[in-house]
Amino acid sequence: MYYRFPITRPRRLRSSRVIRNMVSETSLSPSNLVLPIFVKDEGSIEQINSMPGQYRYPIGDELIKAINDAVESGVRAFLLFGVTKSKDPLGSLAYDKNGPVPKALRLLKENFGDSIILMTDVCLCDYTEHGHCGVVEYRDPVQVTQTTSQPKYVVNNDATISIYAKIAVNYAEAGANVVAPSGMMDGQVKAIREALDNNGFTDVIIMSYSSKYASTFYGPFREAADSAPRFGDRRSYQMDPRNAYEALKEVSMDLEEGADIVMVKPAMPYLDVIRLVKQHYPEVPLAAYQVSGEYSMIKAAALNGWLNEKMAVIESLIAIKRAGANIIITYYAKEASRWINEVESIL
């Protein structure tokens, strides 16, 4: 006897927008998004050339307006980066109570209270005259010649993490809800957690840049923050782009040391790493950073009319969320918060 089996038709569940929204596997909300903000210690508001639509804000009314505009769009979390011309070998302005980030924190806490979450990047590259993320020690030039492979300098890991601890306490005192060590120094989370706890800041969250890759996609950020290394590169401390499973080791170490949230950076080129980390640590909040290069590529293509900016942004953020990120740090946070519902009516 001849039997006819019914045809499986996945298209039935794609037949209308209402059904597609009902059965969609991934949801994106403004509550998932964090907006990076550059704050400067002098001058007036300044557009960032390589990041159209992004600005460096002086501590004052322009910063308050920018935060308020983002809040009205639905954004509730902000990641602050300091920008300064006052640089020195140890990046001392990073742990100065009158540095740009502590001043911004106090201003925003005064104006917004607990209605927003204030996160702070903990690193030295924005503040050091050499542009590296830690304390640089120079080797004896007599012992290091061009015929050897030994570098002429080294970033001192242990000297650096003690400074990170001072920075974190400084930011916590000024009102930070979250501190985010990004320097990829071994033991940085432990040093920060101990310093915060010893100073009474047991409730301050640590969001660690656990898997931060040595990526070319940071280019526009380095202009924005004036943080490009003046010599060498950061491959001795940031992760090798060829490695994925090493991220699990980094995440494991940070969690053991007291991290509350872990991060993969950049996002789109490392979706496989986001997925890998989430599969191994499903219970841990996972952040992903859609970095400056990702932002600027979409923005440039949109300005040239090569793609639909709104659709490209939402699709890229959905991809990051689908890979496993709970939190997405993106320069598009304000626009995306407005676009999410608009795009859902089109998808």
From TrEMBL:
Database matches in CDD domains: ALAD_PBGS (cd00384)
Catalytic activity: 2 5-aminolevulinate = porphobilinogen + 2 H2O + H(+)
UniProt entry tagged with the keyword Zinc: yes
GO terms of biological process kind: protoporphyrinogen IX biosynthetic process
EC number: 4.2.1.24
Main EC class the enzyme belongs to: lyase
Positions contributing to 5-aminolevulinate 2 binding: 292, 331
UniProt: Mg(2+) binding residues: 250
Pathway(s): Porphyrin-containing compound metabolism; protoporphyrin-IX biosynthesis; coproporphyrinogen-III from 5-aminolevulinate: step 1/4
Keywords associated with the record: Heme biosynthesis, Lyase, Magnesium, Metal-binding, Porphyrin biosynthesis, Zinc
Active site residues of this protein: 212, 265
GO molecular-function terms, A-Z: porphobilinogen synthase activity; zinc ion binding
NCBIfam families per record: PRK09283.1 (NF006762)
Family: Belongs to the ALAD family.
Subunit structure: Homooctamer.
PANTHER family to which the protein is assigned, alphabetical: DELTA-AMINOLEVULINIC ACID DEHYDRATASE
Name of the molecule in the record: Delta-aminolevulinic acid dehydratase
Phylogenetic lineage: Archaea, Thermoproteota, Thermoprotei, Thermoproteales, Thermoproteaceae
